[in-house]
């Protein structure tokens, strides 16, 4: 009898487990690794030069070039001699993505904070101010491998996410949980530096403008060491980049370009938008035309990659006037009638934009997989995943490589 009873119980358990197998699945869950905000804010350190393992954005100021290490901080390169640039220091700024500089004061985001540095002496850089909790969102960097994120133990009031642990868990099929939401996780006068087309920070006279996800934040920097938050307002959907030209801010978002007037610099006003299919799109503006790239074949949301030319002579009604098929574009920039477009694995392409309605490729650099460019008055800076390239413009308005600095 006992043996029969054991068999019956075993059969019942086997039956139940079979049903469970039909109702549950294994999912990869991202669990945040956190740091207290107090510890996070005390972790800014000036360090000796080091390899750049995860190249971010590029910024030029005087004889120096700043290269962001994504979410880690800023590497400083002495470019006094463009033929032999060299790394001089690394400023560890956890959660950093963007910077901007005016009159020897550097402004940097650090997750939810804005940090101000005095860089008047590059041998003695110092943090002079920090505005806490001025950005409502920041990039959590949720791993691509994760199908869900578990924030159940996260205290957003006291902690900052600094990493993730991936764990395999059994979850009921179709069970609603803490699904990953990548969108919600992302966060002149005087001597002002120059950023690339992927920048989200812009300084215009006495104001610093920053954008992220769907917000624009405005700071009064008339007192450079004591910036003041003016206000934050809605900027558009999934904003990724910002460019300033002639009293307007042009915001590049995943589904279009948004134009804001800064006639009243403290309170930018929405003017119009140009919408397109979803794609990653930095934008630059020269005169009556805006040039933006759409990169497809990835998380940006669409298949095709193109360079778009938009007539913005009527700021209230921007109009698409031309398109050029590209392979895998990133940043872009211009000097005079030359438009430089970083086209991923296809290298850098140079367009003659003398006639914006009929642009032609006049040069190409297929061996340089640049992510962004900064055309300066006397030279062109290009940044890739592992190198900084510098070119000089010659008399025929073509460009000649003068140096390459390996970054990692």
Helix content: under 10%
Highest CATH level, the class of the domain at 25-169: Mainly Beta
Query: Helix- and strand-based class?
Result: mainly beta
Distance between the termini: 73 Å
If you compute it from the alpha carbons, what radius of gyration comes out, rounded to the nearest whole angstrom? 24 Å
* Major sheet attributes: 6 strands, antiparallel
Contiguous low-pLDDT stretches (5 residues minimum) are: 1-20, 175-190
Residues in β-strands, percent: over 45%
Chain-wise SSE layout:
Elements: H1 2-23, E1 24-36, H2 37-41, E2 45-47, E3 55-61, E4 64-69, E5 73-78, E6 86-92, E7 99-102, E8 105-110, E9 113-118, E10 126-131, E11 148-149, E12 159-172, E13 194-195, E14 201-204, E15 207-220, E16 228-245, E17 248-253, E18 256-261, E19 269-275, E20 283-286, E21 289-294, E22 306-311, E23 319-325, E24 332-335, E25 338-342, E26 348-352, E27 360-365, E28 370-375, E29 379-384, E30 387-393, E31 399-406
Parallel strand pairs: 1-11
Antiparallel strand pairs: 1-12, 2-6, 3-4, 3-13, 4-5, 5-6, 7-8, 8-9, 9-10, 14-15, 15-16, 16-17, 17-18, 18-19, 20-21, 21-22, 22-23, 24-25, 25-26, 26-27, 28-29, 29-30, 30-31
Word description of this protein:
The protein is globular. A hairpin with a 7-residue loop joins strand 9 and strand 10. It has helices at residues 2-23, 37-41, and strands at 24-36, 45-47, 55-61, 64-69, 73-78, 86-92, 99-102, 105-110, 113-118, 126-131, 148-149, 159-172, 194-195, 201-204, 207-220, 228-245, 248-253, 256-261, 269-275, 283-286, 289-294, 306-311, 319-325, 332-335, 338-342, 348-352, 360-365, 370-375, 379-384, 387-393, 399-406. The strands form seven sheets. Strands 2-6-5-4-3-13 form a six-stranded antiparallel β-sheet, with no helix packed on it. Strands 14-15-16-17-18-19 form a six-stranded antiparallel β-sheet, with no helix packed on it. The chain has a four-stranded antiparallel β-sheet with strand order 7-8-9-10, with no helix packed on it. The chain is mainly beta and 408 residues long. The chain has two helices and 31 strands. The protein has a domain at 25-169: Lipocalin (Beta Barrel), CATH 2.40.128.
């Amino acid at each position: 009898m006992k043996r029969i009873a054991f068999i019956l119980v075993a059969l019942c358990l086997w039956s139940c487990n079979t049903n469970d197998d039909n109702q549950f699945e294994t999912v990869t869950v991202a669990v945040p690794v956190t740091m207290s905000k107090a510890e996070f804010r005390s972790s800014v350190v000036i360090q000796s030069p080091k390899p750049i393992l995860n190249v971010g954005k590029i910024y030029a100021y005087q004889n120096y070039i700043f290269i962001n290490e994504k979410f880690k901080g800023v590497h400083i390169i002495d470019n006094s001699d463009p033929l032999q640039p060299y790394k001089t220091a690394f400023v560890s700024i956890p959660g950093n993505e963007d910077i901007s500089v005016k009159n020897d004061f550097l402004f940097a985001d650090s997750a939810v904070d804005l940090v101000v540095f005095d860089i008047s002496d590059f041998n003695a850089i110092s943090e002079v101010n920090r505005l806490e909790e001025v950005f409502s969102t920041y990039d959590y960097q949720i791993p691509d491998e994760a199908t869900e994120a578990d924030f159940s133990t996260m205290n957003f009031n006291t902690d900052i996410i600094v990493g993730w642990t991936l764990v395999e868990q059994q979850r009921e099929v179709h069970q609603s949980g803490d699904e990953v939401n990548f969108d919600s996780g992302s966060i002149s006068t005087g001597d002002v530096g120059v950023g690339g087309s992927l920048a989200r920070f812009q300084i215009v006279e006495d104001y610093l403008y920053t954008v992220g996800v769907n917000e624009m934040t405005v700071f009064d920097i008339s007192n450079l060491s004591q910036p003041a938050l003016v206000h934050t307002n809605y900027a558009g959907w999934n904003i990724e980049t910002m460019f300033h030209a002639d009293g307007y801010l042009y915001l590049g978002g995943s589904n279009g370009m948004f134009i804001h007037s800064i006639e009243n610099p403290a309170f930018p006003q929405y003017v119009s938008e140009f919408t397109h299919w979803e794609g990653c799109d930095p934008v630059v503006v020269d005169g009556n035309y805006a040039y933006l790239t759409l990169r497809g074949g990835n998380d940006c949301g669409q298949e095709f990659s193109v360079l778009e030319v938009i007539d913005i002579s009527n700021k209230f009604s921007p109009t698409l006037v031309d398109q050029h098929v590209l392979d895998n574009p990133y940043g872009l920039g211009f000097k005079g009638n030359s438009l430089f477009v970083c086209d991923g694995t296809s290298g850098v392409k140079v367009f003659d934009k003398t006639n914006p309605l009929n642009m032609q490729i006049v040069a190409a650099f297929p061996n340089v997989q640049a992510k962004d460019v900064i055309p300066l008055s006397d030279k062109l800076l290009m940044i890739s995943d592992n190198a900084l390239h510098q070119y000089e413009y010659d008399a025929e308005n073509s460009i000649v490589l003068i140096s390459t600095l390996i970054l990692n």
